[in-house]
Design the sequence.
């Protein structure tokens, strides 16, 4: 049995309490450095592996300070506050003196409460009836994912004459099957192309600046999903003066909203 | 001329580079401790006042670790990375040994680029034709705001028999007029009631866990807004096992999307 590429990318060696060593892997390389989602996942893993942790992930915000260079990195984890219901963590990923990323993570206790889903899964064709698209070679990490776009597939070959809609919907999962867990959900939460690609077409220098993912699932919800595709939706608000925002939602095959999130990204021109 | 309550709440005394002292003020008290938005604003102010800062705010994520007690607090600011286009900051607000909140801030250079707004302002009646609502006494800080709900006004008197829609729309601004700036936009970004109040009605113990605000405006956009009301929209996805997500958008009176954001909140039962 071979180790899944995501598990290789998220592997961490403990150095001391709250200090870990990891390394980039070639599988998830993006235009400059690793795909942001795999950085989110390895940061989250440093909290998941922490023996002070009492509960499951609720939120992770990752700030991409500079591109991670191929090779090893270290992650420092600080437990800022440990309460009855919630733990707050801050993280810093470094290569030598360079801060590659910072993150904050919240973990929390989940028990039965009032329950209501206000955002129903959009009514779309089932995944099996939607063709999967080949990953564009320039975005190497996409070879690790299977995307079945329902709408809003970005056109990377050249800019569009008029802006296209900002919304994309796609069935998505790991190309090499792997049962959904917190790590893969964290990575997928950054899987959609930046909305500027969808709206404008073409490809200019760009990158996520800050990304927040909220885990709305319980462990049971993840277990129910297994290796089936998630339905993802991404939408954007404004593209102006180098910055754009976007929001994402991810539903399991049975219609449960498993995660949502938001990010702000930078584009060059 | 009296000082505006928001400026009193955001006032900071410099202790050394990247270290500030502030204090809670009675004006913005919520059920437990200060209203989250005023914490976001005072944290942002510690970056705005920093003489290492080169550009305007792009993003702030605030994690509410524990309620701030009435009285003084200190804020530590670390400049993690200073690049040509972006600066990354991390902050920690403390009272003695207790971490009240942590935050990450991104500031960035804004110049002319491709520009497009994908999220139009909803077609709603102008603010002057919509009555302002009295603030419920239990949420004291709301006396600092003028809300004109267009839909989704929460019912705090008792739980609803069936869940209401998660979406709210309202015209909103400072009750005591103050021209819009980064601080007031930061505070307003947490101004909507938590979606659980709107969906379920009634009032149970609850609080924002992590909140991210993205500034999509330029200084010119803020100047154009002045003291006029913003149109705000808040919506939520799922309420389950103690946690709920919500997304917000804020448009200026002229239809420009000035900010968007997201948060995850905890509720007790």
Sequence:
């Amino acid at each position: 049995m071979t180790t899944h590429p995501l598990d290789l990318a998220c592997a961490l060696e403990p150095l001391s309490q709250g200090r870990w060593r990891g390394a980039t892997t070639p599988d998830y390389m993006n235009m400059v450095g690793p795909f942001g989602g795999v950085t989110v996942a390895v940061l989250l893993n440093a909290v998941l592996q922490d023996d002070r942790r009492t509960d499951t992930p609720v939120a992770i915000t990752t700030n991409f300070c500079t591109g991670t260079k191929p090779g090893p990195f270290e992650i420092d984890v600080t437990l800022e506050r440990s309460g009855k219901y919630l733990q707050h963590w801050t993280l810093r990923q470094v290569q030598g003196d360079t801060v590659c990323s910072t993150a904050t993570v919240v973990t929390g206790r989940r028990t039965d409460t009032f329950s209501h889903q206000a955002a129903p899964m959009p009514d779309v064709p089932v995944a099996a009836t939607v063709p999967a698209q080949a990953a564009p070679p320039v975005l190497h990490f996409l070879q690790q994912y299977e995307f079945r776009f329902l709408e809003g597939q970005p056109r990377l070959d050249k800019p569009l004459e008029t802006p296209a809609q900002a919304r994309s919907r796609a069935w998505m999962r790991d190309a090499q099957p792997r049962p959904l867990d917190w790590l893969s959900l964290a990575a997928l939460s950054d899987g959609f192309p930046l909305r500027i690609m969808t709206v404008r077409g073409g490809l200019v220098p760009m990158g996520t600046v800050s990304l927040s993912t909220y885990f709305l699932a319980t462990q049971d919800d993840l277990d129910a999903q297994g290796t089936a595709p998630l339905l993802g939706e991404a939408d954007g608000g404004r593209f102006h003066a180098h910055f754009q925002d976007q929001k994402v939602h991810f539903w399991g095959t049975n219609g449960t909203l498993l995660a949502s999130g938001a990010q702000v990204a930078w584009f060059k021109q």
